[in-house]
Specification:
Elements (H helix, E strand, L loop, with lengths): L3 E4 L11 E2 L5 E2 L4 H12 L3 E5 L5 H10 L3 E3 L5 H12 L6 E4 L6 H4 L4 E4 L13 E2 L8 H12 L3 H7 L3
Helix pairs in contact: 1-5
Amino acid sequence: MIELIVIDVDGTLTDGKIYYSNSGEEIKAFNIKDGLMIASWNRLGKKSAIITGRTSKIVDKRAKELGVTYVRQGIRDKKRELLSIVEEMKISLDEVAVIGDDMNDLSMMKLTKKTFAPKDANPFIYGFVSYPLSKRGGEGAVAEMIEILLKESNLFDKFLELWEN
């Protein structure tokens, strides 16, 4: 059963575009559906991690809002970072699902059996993805991944119960 989801940011949680204001501030847009599903995943007692190559205060803020367990930014070696988190959690790589959209996510994807990519991911990545998704990055791809995992783990009813009160 999957205990940890690992999420890339740019192109996965966002549309992959980098926006700058006139003052040079970086701006990102996050999909509310992705956020609700990440928060729900965490409320079900599961863990989540963001591992991203870029660094942004916006990512810290969004991760905190959603209760993301591990936030690792400015990471060049995503494989090493994932292995570190797995060791800290004392779980196996079979208990990890990864979603990413580009070549810098490949090293993580090669470690795990449950791999996901948004519809608009780099075409080269699809050869290493077990679940190509129908949603684009920043448009619900992470929510789609979590829904699949909940159904496969027979947790979908518990997910629904979170929202029945």
